Amino acid sequence: xxxxxxxxxxxxxxxxxxxxxxxxxxxxxxxxxxxxxxxxxxxxxxxxxxxxxxxxxxxxxxxxxxxxxxxxxxxxxxxxxxxxxxxxxxxxxxxxxxxxxxxxxxxxxxxx
Length: 112
Fold this sequence. Notes:
Elements: E1 2-11, H1 16-32, E2 36-52, E3 55-67, H2 72-80, E4 87-92, H3 105-111
Antiparallel strand pairs: 1-3, 1-4, 2-3
């Protein structure tokens, strides 16, 4: 099994409980393909650089999970069918820990 990190963007008009339900569906799909979620971080509402599907903002969440490499593409196809998601990006992860942007040591040195 390989370690992956998925970033999920939900539309700005969604309510908090609807986002929570969307995250549960995301986890369910990972488990459906035999994966195992290691950690989850909700990054909150962020402004897009340009509108995405008529949305100026989106709610971001990042998950780290284990899964066989052959199952990643079918998982992405399943996510495209979910109306709750604006965008999904899945990449190989280097560690199980999910860091929020700006918590990197180099960032702290720049700002400190």
